[in-house]
């Protein structure tokens, strides 16, 4: 640190900031208890509760029915923001919370998020009637609610996005709403079919590429479930392929390590299966991954490293996992006929593969010139729109 730099004070944690704001509002409103509640699944969930005497009747995480709460009445506008004495309002006197929480005077305002949705309410109350609350108190309480909502917003919206993702993916997984298409992999020397790669398709909203669906699934801890479903559905069509053709299945290291892969492949002839691990999938423990794959490989399953040439990770994957097949990424194949650098890298990978008894498959072949160049480089096999588009079978 230079002499001119001044150390920045540590910022208080978010929970501490919110607690301070809730308590300050309680003091300003001259109330006994203040709390922030969230509306969730038809219930009012208490998130932040402050009572200086330690006698708050609820604690964070407690909940009750939203339709039996003051909070819902405030948002609906069926009671005013200020209640001088709950016993004056028959609808409030009948609510269980009035007696259970000993509410007499009450002040509550909705908490809005920037997307226009209601988070919940910010409320405070006294155990005795109060006739001193004014519109100025409502305005001050509203400002406090806006402040707390801003503090909570990033976390709340992130939590809602995760919940929405999990629900959306749950519908796909539980409903098995996943289509599988198969792209031919052919011998570049004679054009004969060697195998097919199974590719997932999502016939549901939102419309987007499969990579984004799987990325979302892994982000919310449902990636393994989605991959295993795709593997199961793809394997069910293996018998419809020519008997000499293999089935290539995409799988992440996390799914291999989850312990359920072997069960999903039960009954599938492993000698006809190739597992493709993408270059982009991070691998923390190569030894653990190799150990998990060992029984499957011993039973005939082959391993491919996908997307080779698109980054450094693929070279580590190749050296550590000793695959049977190296798949050259489509970014390396594009315009390979006119790009000396791409040709040199593809030639090097092909030479390495032959020296280590691996086969090479080039992805994304789209032009006759690319195909001719790959043949001249000695690449064994390939796939791409020039050779065959993905299609359903059966």
TrEMBL record:
InterPro entries per UniProt: Cyclic-di-GMP_PDE-like, EAL_dom, EAL_sf, GAF, GAF-like_dom_sf
The EAL domain sits at 162-394
One Pfam entry name? GAF
Please give the PANTHER family that the UniProt record associates with this protein: CYCLIC DI-GMP PHOSPHODIESTERASE PDEF, SIGNALING PROTEIN
Q: What is this protein called?
A: EAL domain-containing protein
Where does this protein come from, organism-wise? Answer: Massilia phyllostachyos
């Amino acid at each position: 640190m230079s002499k001119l730099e001044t150390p920045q004070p540590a910022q208080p944690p978010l929970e501490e900031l919110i607690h301070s704001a809730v308590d300050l509002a309680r003091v300003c409103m001259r109330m006994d208890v203040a709390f922030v509640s969230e509306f969730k699944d038809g219930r009012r969930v208490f998130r932040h509760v402050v009572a200086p005497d330690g006698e708050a009747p609820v604690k964070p995480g407690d909940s009750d029915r939203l339709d039996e709460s003051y909070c819902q009445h405030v948002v609906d506008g069926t009671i005013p923001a200020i209640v001088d004495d709950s016993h004056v309002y028959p609808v409030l006197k009948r609510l269980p919370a009035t007696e259970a929480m000993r509410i007499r005077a009450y002040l509550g305002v909705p908490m809005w998020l920037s997307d226009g949705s209601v988070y919940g309410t910010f409320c405070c109350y006294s155990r005795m009637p109060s006739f001193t609350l004014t519109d100025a108190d409502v305005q001050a309480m509203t400002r406090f609610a806006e402040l707390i909502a801003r503090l909570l917003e990033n976390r709340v919206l992130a939590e809602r996005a995760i919940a929405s993702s999990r629900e959306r993916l749950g519908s796909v997984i539980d409903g098995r709403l996943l289509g599988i298409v198969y792209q031919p992999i052919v011998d570049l020397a004679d054009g004969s079919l060697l195998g097919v790669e199974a590719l997932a398709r999502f016939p549901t909203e939102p419309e987007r590429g499969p990579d984004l669906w799987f990325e979302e699934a892994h982000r919310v801890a449902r990636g393994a479930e989605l991959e295993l479903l795709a593997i199961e559905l793809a394997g069910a069509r293996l018998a419809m392929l020519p008997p000499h053709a293999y089935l290539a299945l995409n799988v992440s290291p996390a799914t291999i390590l989850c312990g359920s892969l072997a069960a999903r492949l039960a009954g599938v002839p492993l000698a006809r299966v190739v597992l493709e691990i993408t270059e982009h999938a991070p691998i923390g423990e190569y030894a653990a991954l190799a150990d998990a794959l060992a029984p499957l490989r011993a039973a005939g399953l082959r391993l491919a490293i996908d997307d080779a040439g698109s980054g450094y990770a693929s070279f580590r994957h190749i050296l550590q996992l000793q695959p049977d097949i190296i798949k050259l990424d489509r970014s390396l194949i594009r315009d390979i006929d006119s790009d000396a650098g791409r040709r040199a890298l593809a030639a090097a990978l092909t030479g390495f593969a032959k020296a280590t008894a691996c086969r090479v498959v080039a992805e994304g072949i789209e032009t006759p010139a690319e195909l001719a160049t790959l043949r001249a480089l000695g690449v064994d096999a390939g796939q791409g729109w020039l050779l065959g588009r993905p299609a359903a079978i059966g």
